[in-house]
Design goal:
The structure holds two protein chains of two kinds. Chain A is an alpha+beta fold. Chain A folds into three domains: 47 residues, Uridine Diphospho-n-acetylenolpyruvylglucosamine Reductase, domain 2; 116 residues, Uridine Diphospho-n-acetylenolpyruvylglucosamine Reductase, domain 3, CATH 3.30.465.10; 109 residues, CO dehydrogenase flavoprotein, C-terminal domain (Enolase-like, domain 1). Chain A is built from twelve helices and 14 strands. In chain A, helix 10 runs antiparallel to helix 11 and helix 11 packs antiparallel against helix 12. Chain A starts with a strand and ends in an 8-residue tail after the last helix. By secondary structure, chain B is an alpha+beta fold. A five-stranded mixed β-sheet of chain B has the order 2-1-5-3-4, covered by helices on one side. In chain B, a hairpin with a 2-residue loop joins strand 3 and strand 4. Classes of the chains: A alpha+beta, B alpha+beta. At the A-B interface, helix 2 and helix 6 of A face strand 4 of B.
């Protein structure tokens, strides 16, 4: 890795001014676990690295009954996983954060850094889209708020404009009627990066499903919302047959990646199988018996 | 290229140094401080041989710049115990065959220390989850799991 200017702005306005000044020659560093790998492999060779670690204002987690959950971009995955408030009100998010990557990385890597790097083989974007998350972006032209699904644009590509920083992740207030499951699939238990990840949340209206969110990531260049399966589930009972039909729609709709860790056909198959199992589980059925 | 002044605490000792921006914490510990207990393995964040604790949390020192450790409190395997007075955890590794070639051992000891600082009574699944970022090429995992369970028991009973 070659040397670079290492800059540590003490405030957000100073960080933004630095980025405006440096333009494309700078990389932003949060925890640095992913960025350093990219730099060591010479995929990235920035002249300057702007480290945000002094921006204390981006390191908090707050829960408010009307505003919902607010997570600063520099909150580490371990902090999300260990937060009693997140565990209590957003168990699906805490569970995801507790299993992402490995313990040492969870102690360094941040949720904002993860979202901005947009590596497809990761967990937070898929989970956050299914939880209706939004992100706040601050840049030279002011502040804007985007749905997470619109932020995760493509393979290693986000909606961030040059000079913009992601400052905050927002989740709506907890809805006790909504149930959810997040699942990550690994090629081997020793791997840290999922080959597919599935996030599912839905409202129960008596026996019937309403307003399902079904998002699949890691298998795809960016998380993909399974629109056909979601529409199919509306108003149905979660029977084993419903689960199988919705899973077949996932197989038809998903546009998977092919890479060294798995080809598209493999990823399509594991997405289908696991979607069926998760829906069956939420319906109270043991898929092992069917 | 400019060098960056840093000040950090390593195994209880305050260190000041000037480092290149691209110097990794693992490299700084080994070459500048001669703390070669911290191993360089894959250097891509996979194997965990370079694990140290930073402000009480175990991290991979190959995924961290030395400049990022400015102001931090670092503990390496050298801080755990000595040859004549090993820690309970180190003794347990010896007694339960928690090492074969020994190259991965410092990393495993540091994640085990992190685990036991948060969880005094981990079950086997929790121990294995804590070890998920570390590789042992000798595949001596069972001995490592047994050693950590035994150390937890000993620490609970307060020897």
């Amino acid at each position: 890795m070659r040397d670079f200017r290492f800059l540590t702005p003490p405030t957000l306005p100073e960080a933004l001014a630095m980025l405006a000044d440096l333009g494309e020659d700078a990389c932003v560093m949060a925890g640095g676990t992913a960025l350093l790998l990219g730099m060591r492999q010479r995929m990235l060779s920035p002249d300057s690295v702007v480290s945000l670690h002094r921006l204390q204002a981006l390191k908090g987690i707050t829960v408010d009954p009307t505003q919902g959950l607010t997570i600063g971009a520099l909150v580490r995955h371990a902090d999300v996983a260990r937060s009693p408030e997140v565990q209590r009100h957003y168990p699906m998010l805490a569970d995801m954060a507790q299993r992402l990557a490995n313990p040492q990385v969870r102690n360094r890597a941040t949720i904002g850094g993860n979202l901005c790097y947009a590596d497809p083989a990761t967990d937070p974007p898929t989970c956050l889209i299914a939880l209706d998350a939004e992100v706040t972006l601050v840049g030279p032209d002011g502040t804007r708020r985007l749905a997470m699904r619109d932020f995760a644009v493509d393979y290693y590509t986000t909606a961030l404009e040059p000079g913009e920083l992601l400052t905050t992740i927002h989740l709506p207030p907890p809805d006790t009627m909504r149930v959810g499951l997040y699942r990550r699939l690994l090629r081997t238990p020793a791997e840290h990066r999922p080959v597919a990840s599935i996030a599912l949340t839905l409202l129960r209206n008596g026996d019937l499903v309403s307003d399902a969110r079904l998002v699949i990531g890691a298998a795809t260049p960016a998380p993909q919302t399974m629109i056909r399966a979601q529409a199919f589930l509306e108003g149905r009972r979660l029977t084993p047959d419903t689960a199988a039909e919705a899973a077949a729609l996932v197989a038809a709709e998903i546009a998977p990646l092919s890479d060294g860790r798995g080809d598209a056909a493999f990823r399509r198959q594991i997405a289908q199988v696991n979607t069926r199992r998760m829906l069956a589980e939420l319906g109270g059925h043991d898929w092992r018996l069917e | 290229m400019t060098r960056h002044p840093i000040s950090l605490t390593v195994n209880g000792e305050v260190i000041t140094a000037e480092v290149r921006s691209a110097q990794l914490l693992s490299d700084f510990l080994r070459t500048e401080l001669a703390l070669t207990g911290t191993k360089r393995g894959c250097e891509t964040g996979t194997c965990g041989a370079c694990s140290v604790t930073m402000d009480g949390d175990v991290v991979k020192s190959c995924l961290c710049l030395a400049v990022q450790a400015d102001g931090a409190v670092i503990e390496t395997v050298e801080g755990l115990g000595t040859h004549d007075a090993p820690s309970a955890l180190q003794r347990a590794f010896m007694e339960h065959g928690g090492l074969q070639c020994g190259y991965c051992t410092p990393g495993f000891l540091m994640v085990a220390k992190d685990l036991l600082s948060r969880n005094h009574d981990p079950d086997e699944a929790e121990i294995r989850a804590a070890l998920s970022g570390n590789l042992c090429r000798c595949t001596g995992y069972q001995g490592i799991v047994d050693a950590i369970a035994a150390a937890a028991k000993e620490l609970r009973h307060g020897h």
